[in-house]
Amino acid sequence: MLGAVWVLLLVWGFMAAAYHGDIGLVTAGALSGAAKSLELIWGLAGGIMLWLGLLALLRESGLMHKLAQLFAPFMYRLFPEVDASSPALGDIVLNFCANLLGLGNAATPFGIRAMQELERDNPEPGRATDSMITLLLLNTTAPTLLPTTIIALRAAAGSVNPAEIVPLAFAASMFGLGVGLAAHWVIIHWGRRANG
Question: What's the rounded Cα separation, in Å, for the pair 115 and 110?
Fold first, then answer.
């Protein structure tokens, strides 16, 4: 559906340009946009490679697991249904830590594995448990201490201080997580009272 919308917009733009006799401007704009997008991609690629390299160093040095151990007590409270020995809890913690470092692409495999482990222990397969919903909230709001992709985007766009958004990004992501968890808690407890 979205592809059809894009095609419609492109055709409409070419028709309007042809009607007004500005088809040369459309071609020049398309070529200029393509060149700018390549510049942006190269700028982003460098930043992403840097942060993925740092993540690899964190993993190889064992610091990622130490960071995971630091957050494990917090995760036990967030996921009381999950057994402490479950592999899901380790993947949840690694997913959280990767998101905290702004490495969303690296966090995704941990999140998928954690969700698969939670589904394996699910008493009602196909229906989301409280832990699955909490994991989804945690992954969607992605509390980010260091939004590396956004910093790389801002640097590629020529920002004088690309990292100035760090405190605001962290505050916004934590606020989103807090609101999501509070809403989830209210729904769980309200639902239990209504059913009980």
Answer: 9
pLDDT score recorded for residue 116: 92
Residue 160's region, left for phi above 0, alpha for psi from -120 to 50, else beta, is alpha
Residue 139 near residue 95 (C-beta atoms within 8 A): yes
Stated pTM of the model = 0.64
* Whole-number Å distance between alpha carbons of 76 and 181: 15
Helical residues (DSSP H) of the chain, grouped into ranges: 2-20, 23-61, 63-78, 87-100, 104-120, 130-141, 148-156, 166-195
Which residues contact residue 179 at a Cβ distance below 8 angstroms, ignoring those fewer than 6 apart? none
CB 143 within 8 A of CB 173: yes
Residues 43-98: pLDDT tens digits?
667 766 776 777 678 778 877 667 767 877 888 888 888 877 777 887 888 888 87
